[in-house]
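As a warm-up, study this chain.
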Amino acid sequence: MDQDTAIAAFSALAHPTRIAVFRLLVRSAPQAVPALSIASRLDAKPSTLSGHLAILRRAGLIASTRHQREIRYEANLPSVNAMIGFLLSDCCGGQISHCQDILTMLGEETGA
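Now compare it with the structure written out below.
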């Protein structure tokens, strides 16, 4: 991920509703979540939520698919991985042993 793409992704997340949507979709991965379910779970107005979803989609953080009249959203996990890789690529001057706290946290999150 280049710097401009990373800035766009981080900017898209710089809003309480958008980061809540993103976190919900990451937790739900790899399952897609219907837009109305997202609105209900986050207690957000569907009309307002659609704008936030569009911003996240343009930043490449989420993807959408249409199933008849329903639109489902999912986290774009390769993009999420690229964003995390961008953040950590220079971490600790390449000394992975200095990143143990991060690795431990990721292991706890995934149950590893």
